[in-house]
Amino acid sequence: MSGALDIATAVLLVAGGFFCIVGGVGLHRFSEFYQRTHAASVTDTAGAGLMLLGLMLQGGLSMVTLKLLLVLAFLLFSSPAIAHALVKAAHGHGLELEIEDEPGRDGDAAG
Amino acid sequence: MRLGVLLLLAAVWLALSGPYTLDGWLIPVFGLVSVAFVWRLYLALERAAGGGFEFFRASAWLRLPRFLVAFAVKVAAANLHVTKLILSPKIELHPRLRRVPASQKISFGQVLYANFITLTPGTITLDLRDDELLVYALDAESEADVMDGSMDRDVLRIEGSAD
Predict the structure, then answer these.
(1) Residue ranges of the domains in chain A?
(2) Which residue in the set A25, A38, A81 is minimally distant from B121, CB to CB?
(3) CB-based burial of residue B3 (10 Å sphere; 0-12 exposed, 13-18 middle, 19+ buried)?
(4) Of the candidates A24, A89, A96, A97, which lies 20 to 30 Å from B97 by C-alpha distance?
(5) Residue-wise pLDDT tens digits, B86-98
(6) pTM to 2 decimal places
(7) CB–CB contacts below 8 A, A to B
(8) CA distance A16 to A51
């Protein structure tokens, strides 16, 4: 494994870790449920994506990389489905959204 | 399509367990059984959904790389924006709800568009009804990412029904 590749992996892993932490910080700093789901999606996309990319560099063209790609693919399918299920359940059961303006609600055309 | 799903399942099993275990006979049999079982689940799901699922045409695979690049760029930009929001000393959000038309022709395209929006930090899809998405956005900049319709066009393009 060449040095440059190792450095690239290290940078990607640290960057991925940074975004995971940012997602966690956002979970605490944002004030209500719907906003917090956005913070969590930073962890899901940038955090996990960069880390997996860094690991793929170490795997090279191999079965390991194929499996990491599959992990990434399943993650990209499942995490929006989960986020949508959570938010739709909260919305459907009447958890109020804190909204500044909502011209597009209740049948209006998109604002 | 059903055959395609069967082939895809077999390929995934082969990729994950095949190369290391094909010399025996027990594991390949387990593989066949599990692939058949999951395919059976898919068929049941299809029946429960009331008829066949509509997927993109096979030629969508050719347009996949371009879509993935557009996807990665948009998600990266949105991540940086939301990171900035999270780390700013004073959190200032202007959350809003918008109805966004999903102009994709088939339901798979609409679901892909809705998931695209949800995956992009700063915007999340609350509901999908009557070819319209209910989108919740953190602030004006996140909202603009969706309202300018570029993501809609990306999905239309891979669907193959872009103008």
Answers:
(1) 3-92
(2) A38
(3) exposed
(4) A24
(5) 998 888 888 888 8
(6) 0.84
(7) 118
(8) 5
**Is the pLDDT assigned to residue A3 strictly greater than 80?**
yes
One-character DSSP codes across A72-90: HHHHHHHHHHHHHHHHHHH
Which ipTM did the prediction report?
A: 0.81
Kindly state the DSSP code that residue B43 receives in the 8-state scheme.
Answer: H
Handedness of CA A46, A52, A53, A54 (dihedral sign): positive
Mean of the per-residue pLDDT values of chain A: 85
* SS3 label, residue B49: coil
Alpha carbon distance B51, A35 (integer Å): 37
Smallest CA–CA distance from A21 into chain B, residue: B83
Rounded to the nearest angstrom, the minimum Cα separation between A6 and chain B is 23
The whole-number pLDDT of residue A13 equals: 95
Q: Is B55 helix (H, G, I), strand (E, B) or coil?
A: coil
- Judging contacts by C-beta atoms under 8 Å, the chain B residues touching residue A46 are 75-76, 79, 83, 121
User: In terms of CA atoms, which chain B residue is nearest residue A26?
Assistant: B86
Give how far Cα B52 sits from Cα of B25, B102, B108, B157, B159, Å.
Answer: 35, 21, 12, 23, 17
Is the CB of residue A100 less than 8 Å from the CB of residue B96?
A: yes
Q: Which two tokens stand for residue A33?
A: 């449920």
